[in-house]
Amino acid sequence: MKILVTGGLGFIGSHTVVELAKENNEIIILDNLYNSKIEVLDKLEKITGKKFKFYKYDLLNKEDVEKVFEENEIDSVIHFAGYKAVGESVEKPLMYYSNNLMSTLNLLNIMKKYNVKKFIFSSSATVYGNKETGICIETMGRGETSNPYGTTKSMIEKILEDLYASDNTWNITILRYFNPVGAHESGLIGEEPNGIPNNLMPYIMKVASGKLEVLSIFGDDYPTPDGTGIRDYIHVVDLAKGHVKALENMKQGLNYYNLGSGKGISVLEMVKTFEKVNNVKVNYKIVERRAGDLAECYADPSKALRELNWKTEKSLEDICRDAWNFEKNN
Ligand code: WQD
Description:
Blueprint: E1 2-6, H1 11-22, E2 26-30, H2 39-48, E3 53-55, H3 62-71, E4 76-79, H4 86-91, H5 93-113, E5 118-124, E6 135-136, H6 148-166, E7 171-177, E8 179-181, H7 200-208, E9 215-218, E10 230-231, E11 233-235, H8 236-248, E12 254-259, E13 265-266, H9 267-278, E14 284-287, E15 296-299, H10 302-308, H11 316-329
Parallel strand pairs: 1-2, 1-4, 2-3, 4-5, 5-7, 6-15, 7-12, 8-11, 9-14, 10-15
Antiparallel strand pairs: 10-13
Helix pairs in contact: 1-2, 1-8, 3-5, 5-6, 9-11
The structure holds UDP-4-deoxy-4-formamido-beta-L-arabinopyranose (WQD).
């Protein structure tokens, strides 16, 4: 199958390319390198032993995107490209709405023109919004999102619903990620956020490697066993394999799937596991809660198991070991 992977040099995109390459797929990567590095292309070739057609294009440029479809008989598209920093989206909402919505609309319009109608969308658990319970089930539908980044994901899901309602020859799979962490076992690819990390795992790694002084734990007064926030951390390789399964088992129509482990892990549990697995110290201090944070958020992943024959296989220890291995190698 010939698959276009937008954002294919990014954290989740690159790991998905590795897993897709194991199957007999021809992969085309489009990435504007806003939040990724061209060196990742060489690393992907090193890991897979395969070469990939690469377009350093921006989805906001319609002519460029059309060129990709003119030059390649694309069967399906996995769409990762988009801005994804929650904090930055609060400061720069127009940048997030313009980029994430327009790039997706451009892509969908050109797919329609070239009659390419198999689409996998990188969505996020954030679309469930602020709920009473920690567990997220696909049938719950979307809630009130708490930042522009999450709202773009919610809006794109709605766009896809309307697109499908207008033309049911589309096959659309929406994958709602929980907290992607970890790295490929080679240590060649992993998460490289620009600047000071917003997310827990990259921040832990910077503290463990001495690049940052101390981890601030945002609140230990939540209604959870140890008082710190609970999330569903999913190894990025498990997440990548979820995309392969979604492609292989793509059902007719528009379908949503949670891609998570189904297990809730607290901040303190993550810190302690990271220290134990890697025999390092992570200095931390408890500070006030971060605005917008939920006490608990974790997946019911049973639908993905039932319909995509997918579930996570890697443990929290694997996550901590592989993440640290990448940090040490880079
Ligand atoms: C995890 C836990 C924090 C940093 C976000 C996005 C979501 C997705 C994943 C893209 C929480 C605590 C964190 C720190 C801390 N992104 N924490 N100190 O907020 O669950 O989800 O990233 O798809 O859409 O919303 O992830 O890693 O920021 O926080 O105590 O320095 O760690 O309070 O409990 P989050 P996170």
